[in-house]
Amino acid sequence: MNSDTELAPAVESILEAARERSGSDGDVVDVDARSLSDALTRAEADGRVPVIAEVKPTSPTADGAREDDPVELAEAMVEGGAAAISVLTEPSHFGGSPEALTRVREAVDVPVLRKDFVLEEAQMDLVAADLLLLIVRFVDDLEALVAAARERGFQPLVEVHDRAELETALYAGADLIGVNNRDLGRLEVDLETFESVAPQAPTDVTLIAESGVSSPEDVRRMRKAGADGLLIGSAIMDHGADDSDVAENTRRLVDADDGSEEA
């Protein structure tokens, strides 16, 4: 782990569970990945905000849970204009599973991100996905994991929380970087996190704003700050309302750049 800053108890619990989960005992995954870059470009060309919509049954910061079929949720997100889909595969705290990701990836034609807490190489081989999340704060040898992910065909999305972690990610060769607006100590969200980190990134890096985007105004703010795409979960899933229209929630955010809807 790369920082001495104290983590929130919920995050410590997530990490402990991740350490206890074994990696695959079988073959190394070999992925023929769908390009996220192409998907983001297509969304831009269609006049849509490039949104990675997240199938997240619940989380330690959610108000409730969604029991909907993950495939139905993902299909609704794509219907609403999502450029890509993120699927939680962490079971203990987020209600996800590798099986859900496999079913979603078979059902949609956009890139699918595996959202989990991957700490070692063997944990990459549980399921095929187009993108794989690696969190700078939680791994010891990021450069080796980035290389291992690419060897399997994954596009590694490397998550950072501050400028120091951005430098670590760049040194490891990351060219797809997510800036998480949620602080891992207090679990508070501050969109200024992205605004402070983004200007330090080279222009050839694809930047994804993560967490805290809940309105068209937030979307426009992150886009103005340099976000090439946005990873949005809770605002689309709307965990407090089982009957919330996921397609409409997605559409509301992907249409934000045209100024047709105010927060």
Summarize the structure.
The protein has 263 residues and is α/β, with parallel strands linked by helices. The chain has 11 helices and 8 strands.
Report the sheet-strand fraction: 5-15%
Mean of the pLDDT scores? Answer: 90
| Uncertain regions spanning at least 5 consecutive residues | 259-263
SSE order, as H and E? HHEHEHHEEHEHEHEHEHH
Main β-sheet, spatial strand arrangement:
1-2-3-4-5-6-7-8
CATH class: Alpha Beta
CATH superfamily grouping: Aldolase class I
Structural class: alpha/beta
Any guess at the CATH architecture?
Alpha-Beta Barrel
Q: How far is it from the N-terminal to the C-terminal residue, by CA?
A: 38 Å
Structural domain count: 1
Which topology does CATH recognise?
TIM Barrel
Q: So what's the overall shape?
A: globular
Structural commentary:
The chain is α/β, with parallel strands linked by helices. The chain has a single domain (35-258), classed as Aldolase class I (TIM Barrel, Alpha-Beta Barrel), CATH 3.20.20.70. Helix content is 36%, strand content 15%. It has eleven helices and eight strands. The chain has helices at 9-20, 36-45, 70-79, 91-94, 98-107, 142-152, 163-171, 192-197, 216-224, 234-237, 246-254, and strands spanning 51-55, 84-88, 112-115, 131-135, 155-160, 176-180, 206-210, 229-232. Strands 1-2-3-4-5-6-7-8 form an eight-stranded parallel beta barrel, surrounded by seven helices. Strand 5 (155-160), helix 7 and strand 6 form a beta-alpha-beta unit. Helix 3 packs across helix 5 and helix 3 packs parallel to helix 11. The longest helix has 12 residues, at 9-20. The radius of gyration is 17 Å and the shape is globular. The N and C termini lie far apart (38 Å). Pathway: Amino-acid biosynthesis; L-tryptophan biosynthesis; L-tryptophan from chorismate: step 4/5. Residues 241-263 are annotated as: Disordered. Belongs to the TrpC family. It comes from Natronorubrum halalkaliphilum. It catalyses: 1-(2-carboxyphenylamino)-1-deoxy-D-ribulose 5-phosphate + H(+) = (1S,2R)-1-C-(indol-3-yl)glycerol 3-phosphate + CO2 + H2O.
